[in-house]
Amino acid sequence: MALARSSAEGNPMAQVGLQALSLEQKASLLTGGGFWSTAAIPEAGVATIVLADGPHGVRRQKHGTDHLGLHHSEPATCFPPAVAVGSSWSEEVASKVGAALAEEARALGVDVLLGPGVNIKRSPLGGRNFEYYSEDPLLSGVLATAYVKALQAGGVGASLKHFAANDQETERMVISADVDERTLREIHLSAFERVVTEAEPATVMCSYNKINGVHASENHWLLTQVLRTEWGYTGAVISDWGAVRTRPAALNAGLDLSMPGPGHHSTQALVKAVRDGRVEESAVDRAAERVLALIDGSGRRPAAPDLDAHHELARELATECAVLLKNAHGTLPLDRTSSVLVVGEFATTPRYQGGGSSHVNATRVDVPLECIENHAAARGTTLMYARGFDTREEDGDALRAAAVRAATEAEVVVVFAGNPEAEETEGLDRDRLELPPAQVQLIKELAAVAPRTVVVLANGGIVSLEEWHDDVDAILEGFLLGQGGGAAIADLLFGAANPSGRLAETIPHRLKDTPTYLSFPGEQEHVRYNEGVMIGYRYYETVGAPVRYPFGHGLSYTDFDVSDLRVQVDGPAEALATVTVTNVGTRAGKYVVQVYVSTHTGPVRRPERTLAAFTKVHLEPAETRTVQLSLDRRAFAYWDLPLARWVVPDGAYVVQVGENASALLHEQLVHLAGDGVRPPLSLQSDVADWLAHPVAGAPLRARLAPLIAQGGPEPEPFEDSDMMRMVGSMPMSQILNLTGGAIDSDWLVSLLDNSDTRA
Length: 759
Ligand code: BGC
What we know:
Layout: H1 23-28, E1 32-34, E2 37-38, E3 51-52, H2 82-88, H3 91-107, E4 112-113, H4 137-153, E5 157-163, E6 176-178, H5 181-188, H6 190-199, E7 203-206, E8 210-211, E9 214-215, H7 220-230, E10 236-239, H8 247-253, H9 264-275, H10 281-297, H11 307-319, E11 323-327, E12 339-343, H12 368-379, E13 382-386, H13 396-407, E14 412-418, H14 437-449, E15 452-458, E16 474-477, H15 485-493, E17 526-528, H16 537-543, E18 560-571, E19 574-583, E20 589-599, E21 610-619, E22 624-631, E23 638-640, E24 645-647, E25 651-658, E26 664-672, H17 687-692, H18 697-709, H19 722-727, H20 732-738, H21 745-752
Residues 53-54, 67, 114, 161, 240-241, 357 line the site of beta-D-glucopyranose.
């Protein structure tokens, strides 16, 4: 575990050898001592540590406890939730959130913070999408890695969750995510893998659901084979709250700590299972060692965070997260606008976080209307306000009519619209993509009379823009921005800050266009991931389906020029992309360089393109920077099912720089030697695979060509012959039969003797 502490800071109570503990004592460590704590063994000098949600603020409950965000928690800064951090495309933002959270967690006596969540936004209807970063595993993994490193450098352990394939709330305790292994590896496990291998989170939290029929908490393949054996994870695996069904089975699968506690019953079940021989005592020892190491690593360092500074930080980070989707006629910023009408309940009662276990008791909340008033007053802008709608859907007609009347008197109308919190919460998936009908009607009626209309959105998952998109002039997608979101939005609207967020998820035209439309959220306790690896932009780009706004889209108040893409091959399966970015506009701003890879090499269907690297650069007007982005082998690899490993095939790869996933700016073709890995050949392998083999191929071709050409009118080039096209996909054994013994199997197999599966 990579927790930062000095040697004097370790928890002295916890530095206890296993040999000093009885079986009962060791087993007692493997279930929580309380709702938010591990079990203590005072007589053996083992202390307790505290765990708390997470992920975007500390939810420390000192009195009533629950895991649904119902009871009171201590005041803490509500930083931008993951949906916003994902849209920042900034490791710096993620890292600053992690570092600040560490201070607040320590001050509140929290040793492990339950986050980040890196599940993939499989459907826009996912109820917890606001707690997850992106539809892309690289973006999610890179941001979460930065967060975990900073959190743990601050002396607080992370809990990477929800492992794995917990991409919906419907039936979340029982649903089986039925996913093929390539899809798991390339999409749903990939962000977890990156965080585990690069940031060593103190704990990994298993999810509630089943994966291919086996509960995550009892899934040996997931918790032991993949996580520990393949990824080398040495920290503690903990359960989501209440995810363990059978304690001995969970221990055998690799789950160390079952939460929450107290767990007398669960301890007894473990002890009995050891005595009955269903669980090895060594398994209890291993898990107890990991829990003790977690306790030992949690050296409580005092902290006194400056909550004013953290509020300021929350505001500053939020400005990097909002995404300017549309800005026709230079409507934004409003710094030269004479009169503004603000409309909408969310301008006075902002939505800034989702519901459920991540719900933070914010230390304070910036109210957008008040922050807008400050900007307006400083510039002499006339400001008016109308509520326009009510989230409880009362007085809708009267509120709308009053707003529409006022709209004719303003130069620009700014509507604060969004989803009610009750619709975006843990435990529920959404049932529609559209904004509430009353808001849609309001926006359309306002836009019909107002000279200019701006819509500011607050929503945890994307919303459909279709019904009103073309009626309005500008759209600022704020998602959920945390407690400083109100000031951030005001700064962005008036140009005190320049938008630099980019979509971390595609906004489709219709729900029906989404790749999971037919299979989300599944039925009868099964959800089949039929879309395979074609999730989000991977799907839209592959099938050429139009979307409203692509992954990676986001505008700025300045303009950037991107030039001089150079790609240098740096090894058999690595490359380095270099690109130059210039701010050619008049305001300082940030640009997200997005590098994608497109290839058709290898035996599997690849998405049209996949994000391979990204970075965000700040540029003053006229400033130029040349950035380098490393493309490691994973940028080119696919998961090979028969070989059960990542493979980079030799062949052609196009490295692309895009304004977003749809709009390419530059590209360069490179050839990679690849891993030289080929599937092992047997007599059941295709003839084509035999012919492609670097050692066996040539002699086989020489023997086969005259046989295939026999009787043919014209000796065609061998590979192009009709006969070859027909036999290419036949198993070699069948061809041997057809040759009537002219080629025998011993000779064939002897060709491979001096050649393993590596070319
Ligand atoms: C959630 C977790 C959370 C835990 C503790 C569960 O319901 O799924 O994300 O960390 O409760 O509150």
